[in-house]
Amino acid sequence: xxxxxxxxxxxxxxxxxxxxxxxxxxxxxxxxxxxxxxxxxxxxxxxxxxxxxxxxxxxxxxxxxxxxxxxxxxxxxxxxxxxxxxxxxxxxxxxxxxxxxxxxxxxxxxxxxxxxxxxxxxxxxxxxxxxxxxxxxxxxxxxxxxxxxxxxxxxxxxxxxxxxxxxxxxxxxxxxxxxxxxxxxxxxxxxxxxxxxxxxxxxxxxxxxxxxxxxxxxxxxxxxxxxxxxxxxxxxxxxxxxxxxxxxxxxxxxxxxxxxxxxxxxxxxxxxxxxxxxxxxxxxxxxxxxxxxxxxxxxxxxxxxxxxxxxxxxxxxxxxxxxxx
Length: 325
Ligand SMILES: NC(=O)c1ccc[n+]([C@@H]2O[C@H](COP(=O)([O-])OP(=O)(O)OC[C@H]3O[C@@H](n4cnc5c(N)ncnc54)[C@H](OP(=O)(O)O)[C@@H]3O)[C@@H](O)[C@H]2O)c1
Known about the structure:
- The chain has helices spanning about 10-20, 35-45, 55-60, 75-85, 100-115, 125-140, 175-190, 280-290, 300-315, and strands at about 1-5, 25-30, 50, 65-70, 90, 115-120, 145-150, 195-205, 205-215, 220-225, 235-240, 245-250, 255-260, 265-270.
- It is of the alpha/beta class and about 325 residues long.
- Strands 8-9-10-7-11-12-13-14 form an eight-stranded mixed β-sheet, covered by helices on one side. It has a six-stranded parallel β-sheet with strand order 3-2-1-4-5-6, sandwiched between helices.
- The mean pLDDT is about 100.
């Protein structure tokens, strides 16, 4: 049984805490917050054994084996380094870091301290994604020609101080939600990118809307979009020579509708057991119990590839973070 502790008490920390009880090999024992009140409130809410009024205090304790980093992007690196140096394994929220340079430092620290480190790309582990990968590998869609993925949402007028809107926080739609489309495209088309064209609408130095077109050496093309001020249906598709899969909530689907060119139809359903996070938590347990320092699925190279791609997209759309200097 691995003992987990959460760093942060926000939105995603809650989602993680709700999922972990569905994982037989994991137990959530602790939470750390910048404030005692929030730590204790979260502790009570989930019936945890321990709460800490600083991230450092949880790092120095010996009550956890794995730290889950659930703070805004720009704190992923310092919190991860803090936990690794205190000999804790780490599951770090996406994006692992605001750029490739930071992530390289984080992986080097994991190696030096001989601890497991993985980016929390939970969507890769849900049954719907695995079924989609099997569908494509089976050849039922034929040769994959085109991928689409829109992940766009709208923050409201009274959310303008949100950390995702601040350039110093690694803000913008690309790192927040565009990352899912890039992951999705890589899962199916791989790494052989031929061209990458990005267009964006900027707002106070961050990308509020980004569109990316990728072409691949084997002939495939991906159309991806992300937004923080524009609500669109969260939708993706995989188009092959023998059929098209239409995918609501494309990067972590529970339902996929397929129209084959021969006129037949198929619906794949793959509901989550809890909220979808349970599969990545089980994967982390499996890796650590096998003595691995890296996931064989969301590998170091995978995370670095996507960050490098996002660095290059940001260059095209003129989004520069202080962390890039
Ligand atoms: N995997 C997913 O589906 C998914 C979904 C949403 C977000 N995320 C990722 O999870 C991370 C956190 O997002 P979130 O939506 O949970 O954010 P959130 O609701 O704002 O919570 C972030 C938490 O981080 C801590 N924190 C430390 N320094 C902070 C600062 N200067 N400003 C604000 N909060 C600070 C706070 O906890 P304390 O005050 O208790 O210390 C806060 O509750 C982001 O990197 C995001 O990309 C992932």
